[in-house]
Each structure stands twice: as C-alpha cells, then as structure tokens.
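Posted in: Structural Biology > Protein-Ligand Complexes

Title: Requesting predicted complex, zinc ion in pocket

I'd be grateful if someone could produce the 3D structure tokens for the following input. Sequence and ligand are given below.
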Amino acid sequence: MTGEAMLWERAWTQRDPAFDGRFFVCVRTTGVYCRCVCPVRLPFRRNVTFLRSAAAAEAAGFRPCLRCRPESAPFSPAWKGTLATVERAFRLIVEEGALDGEDARVAHLADRLGMTERHMRRLFLRHLGATPMAVARTARVQRAKRLLSGTELGMTEIAMQSGFGSLRRFNAVFAEVYRRPPGAIRRNPPGGIAPGARKPDIGGGRSATDVPLANPVRSGRKQP
Ligand SMILES: [Zn+2]
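-- Reply #1 --
Done. Output follows.
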C-alpha cells in the first residue's frame, strides 16, 4: 500500500475532516461513494476503494451518497462557488464595514449578494465556522486594536472609526472580549512596548504585533 493510501485509510476510519474532499470512499457493495466524514456505518475495508475525486468515482460507476453529499465536498465546483460568495461577503464586512452601524442587517448584505439571510449564515458557518455578525465583530475589534496601538486617537474617535457606532458599545465589547477596557490594552500593549511608543508599521497601517484576521478560508487546511 502506498503512503497516500495508508493516510486515506486512516482518515476514513477516523472520519478525519482534514481530509474531507481530498479523496472519496467508493463502496463496491452499494455502488455509492462518500466523503471520508460520512456519518454512515463504515463498510468492510475489503469492499472499499479510495479515489482522488468525485469525478473519478462517478466515472467508475458510483453514485453520490445522499447523506454526506460528496458532490458538495470541499474543493468541489459547488463548494468553490459558495466559497467565492463567502469571500466576497467577508471582504464587504471586513473592508467596507457592511455590518457596522445600528441599521446594518445581515439580511441586507445577503440580499446584496443575491441570497437569503439563512443561506448566508449557513455558508459562513460551513466555510468560516462563524456567523456573519461574529466576523463583523472580530473585524471591529481588530480595527480598534490597530488604532489603539498605532495612533494617539481618543477612545470615542477609535470607537467610531472602528465601526462600533458608540463608545458604550466599544467598551462593552472590549470588556467581553478582553475583560478590560480599551484603555488598558493601549497602556499594556503585548510585547511590552512603552505607552505612547509606536510599533513598527508593517504596511497598511497594521503593526507588527497585530494578530491578523486569520485567513478564514484556507486556515487549517494545508494543500498537499
Ligand atoms: Zn456518505
């Protein structure tokens, strides 16, 4: 057995989500092919063949499982289509503040992208593991952190520029996320830089010690 086949076999027995979409499990006794994360009971190993793509499984005469829907597995055309939509929405939220402000509604953003709020929420959970509102909140916090550590702006100004809409909300979110007021973050920057000192700017107004918004889409999934 090749090294790859051994990896696939282990991923299959463990239903390892890290391998979802990387290969498919074809069950000769039923004529069905599955993702390795399929919740159905594992068939006997001797009845199973592993293939690299859904197309290969279908070319070999297998039909997609109705439980795990391999035709929508990661890296499938359907999955890539929804990923592109999520990436677009993500940019609108993070770069344009599409969900900042009192009147911002997920439904409006979803409408702008031609889908229902429910569908958008589901796509965000699938690709990012977080709701659109959670993504927006993280973006506001990270904008604020950059301003706290990279500028001398006052708290109200930072609250407004980061998209919190009010100082009260800015304080409330920082209390929840960091268990301390925003001012404490400025006074005790990670890395022990003296108050008022500017951190080296690494471009785009970000400081070197910022935790970047993890690339939501590719994190945790290394290409082979
Ligand atoms: Zn299945």
